[in-house]
Amino acid sequence: MTRPNFLVIMTDQQRADHLGCYGNDIVRTPHIDALAARGTRFDRFYVANPICQPNRAALATGQLTSVNGCRQNGIPLGLDATTYADVLRASGYRTGLVGKAHFQNVSPIPAPVPPAKGQGEAPPDPYDLARRSQRRGPEYAHEIRKNWVENPDREVPRPYYGFDHLRLCIGHGDQVEGHYSRWLKDRLDGAPDPRGRAAALDNTPGDAPQVWRTAVPEELYPTSYVGQEACDFIAAADEDPFLLLVSFPDPHHPFTPPGHYFDMYDPDDMPLPESFDHPTRARRDLPRHIQRVYEIGAEKPDAYWPFHTDAEATRRMIALNYGAITMVDDWVGRIMAALEQSGQAEDTVVIFMSDHGDYMGDHGTVLKHGLHTHGLIRVPLIWADPRRGAEVSALQGSAIDFAPTLLQSAGLKCPVGMQGRDLLAEDAADLPVLIEDSGLAFASDDGRTASRTLVHEGWRLSLFEGTDLGELYDLEADPHELSNLWADPAHATRRAEMIKHLAQRMLALRDTSLLSTHQA
Known about the structure:
One of its GO terms (molecular function) is arylsulfatase activity. The protein is of the alpha/beta class. It has helices at residues 30-38, 52-61, 65-68, 84-90, 145-150, 179-188, 222-235, 288-299, 311-341, 374-377, 402-409, 492-508, and strands spanning 5-11, 40-46, 94-99, 165-172, 175-178, 242-247, 307-308, 348-354, 365-366, 381-384, 391-398, 433-437, 451-456, 459-464, 470-474. The chain is 25% helix and 16% strand. The strands form 3 sheets. Strands 5-4-3-6-1-8-10-2-11 form a 9-stranded mixed sheet, sandwiched between helices.
């Protein structure tokens, strides 16, 4: 196997510990567990940014979000960015993406433009912005959901960030658009659209945020669409090696697993996290913009912001989250069967991962945004390569390491400026993980909401812009992050050491993608 195929299976908003192979003894994931049993399971793999669009950009480019520019949801990945798919495609691979991409914006909300600084007249357009190219226009509107509602037959120019074959799912739960819209419409054959809360079945128990019993049958649910499209791509494979990204929109909220998956897990059987009712649920040692995030979530619990909720609602969400995960696992089994039937299993590296996690009850909270607790930043990475044996890797890795690891597995060098490293190299160092976050500007009048987190040697440090407040946790002694040691005098030395490591890691991960055109 000189040039292996790559089958990359990704879920959306799934914690590492919501898999059997990561120690969960309730959720049933036998097919994903089987991949882990024959491959490398990374026990300490972290996001580069804890929300969808930025971390997917980091995975694709091997660059921090401060370098590739996709620092928050709402900033597309530049069309001039080099992705791992670009490199494989240029090297002769047949490339495909089925499911969620989220390389571009899904909402047409215009970006707020802050006033120009200083005194006097404002510079004329476009010189009122320091970077004139703002990644906007029709070439950056291919994932806007309402465009697909208006025209489900629309198409996207290829290659799309390196992918020649493209079948998009845009949205979550049963509220998905994209190429899926036309597929669903064809199969409904004139029947009413069954998507969304308005069309939900009347046997939904109670009325909870983010929860309804979908009227979409199992065979027409987005998970089934993505799984079947993946099987079809594999069956059509030819003599060229392939890269296929299978990107499921679930188990991201809203929690709407279809059919028997909705009732597969009893909420009463769902244990709550140890931190659920801990006093940390109502912390007061947080910056105002972090507190505001949870206030917005309480005001808009059916939106995308985190919110505190009660035990009953949290257990229901966990149970439904597990149902969605098991449905994905069932399709992983079908995809693996299609790979075996195609005769390509021994030539294919299979990877399972997620883009970021979910609080899922940690400190009484659900969803994402806000603090960088472990349920949000630690994600699964399983690397099943027929050329390697089974192992559990204790090496600490970051999303920026994914693209370099994949390219090295293909026997290809990494583009200049790609910042990660090969996690499977024999001499791979156990480096600190730097996590960036600039996505909370909506929660602040001045937009000063950036944070930086470092995970290193069993500790987590988080710094918040515009405040002396911070977080410091001993993850080995306090895995549930119940005791913030930031202001503890006994840990002042450790705090200073972690801040030094953070600064050093930020220096090491500076942008090197622009080359000097002339040398003295």
